[in-house]
Design brief:
This protein is mostly helical and 262 residues long. The protein has helices at 2-17, 49-78, 91-101, 126-133, 138-152, 161-173, 175-206; strands spanning 20-26, 31-37, 221-224, 230-233. It contains seven helices and four strands. The protein is elongated.
Length: 262
């Protein structure tokens, strides 16, 4: 299997270098990939050996590039299978970390990490990053790491963990500024909160049922007596029990008798 892979890589390299030409043969039941040597073209420079040497050197350079490209591609795949859990983290690996962290370095800190004569406003190139990590110290490491944090704080929003980390970072490095920001927006909130509470109180008052006055237990009762007289009194009062006998329905007086000569 390994020999087959090497053979395929050699064929691919020759095809990219122009030494061979690839072709496809289509059969009844299959398709076959083949190759053939590229015929040598007549030299445009006649019998100029220098031109031929330059051409061969360019071809050799490309062959070397192809070898490096293939090495990188295979290494990226194989590194995923390597067991790296037991080895100690080295200083070289630490520098590699800072190489990638430098992508977040702010322009105002270029001079602080050693780029004193930089004119370009573009992001750092690989050569500049390699120069920086070759001269790291405690101060430059802190600058690079904190710029990396600040760059990732851009993902902060309400109720996520990044927002909590941002506020904790700000409280450590700019406590007064953070307190002023919080005070400004808390004041706005308190005013709005007060108005909302007042509106809620008014709405709650409108939804309460109207209070009704209960009937008095000793409310006077209306009674009608003979002759059309009306009297107001309380039926359960002892003082008026005797008088109730005079109401309509009580016994009548006997008629007065009249004698002769009276």
């Amino acid at each position: 299997m390994e020999a087959h892979r090497e053979k395929c890589a050699d064929i691919t390299a020759k095809a990219e270098a122009g030494e061979i030409s690839l072709y496809i043969t289509i059969g009844r039941n299959d398709v076959t990939l083949g190759y053939m040597a590229t015929p040598a073209k007549p030299s445009e420079n006649g019998n100029n050996p220098k031109a031929e040497i330059a051409k061969l050197e360019a071809k050799d350079k490309r062959n070397k590039e192809i070898a490096v490209e293939r090495t990188i591609e295979d290494t990226k795949k194989k590194i995923l299978e390597a067991d790296i859990t037991e080895t100690k983290f080295s200083q070289d690996e630490d520098k590699m970390i800072y190489f990638f962290l430098l992508s977040s370095l702010r322009k105002e800190h270029y001079e602080a990490v050693g780029l004193t004569d930089r004119k370009s406003q573009y992001v750092l190139n690989d050569s500049e990053k390699m120069t920086i990590i070759a001269n790291l110290n405690a101060k430059t490491k802190a600058i690079i790491r904190r710029d990396f944090l600040i760059d990732n704080f851009k993902g902060a929003y309400r109720d996520n963990a990044i927002a909590d980390l941002l506020l904790s970072f700000a409280k450590k490095h700019m406590p007064e500024e953070l307190a002023n920001i919080e005070a400004e927006y808390n004041e706005i909130y308190e005013k709005r909160h007060q108005r909302i509470e007042e509106r809620k109180a008014l709405l709650a008052k409108d939804t309460e049922p109207e209070a009704t006055e209960p009937e008095a237990e000793n409310a006077p009762e209306r009674r009608t007596y003979a002759g059309g007289r009306t009297h107001y009194g309380r039926s359960h009062s002892r003082h008026h029990r005797g008088r109730d006998r005079g109401c309509t329905g009580s016994r009548e007086r006997a008629p007065r008798r009249t004698y002769a000569g009276s």
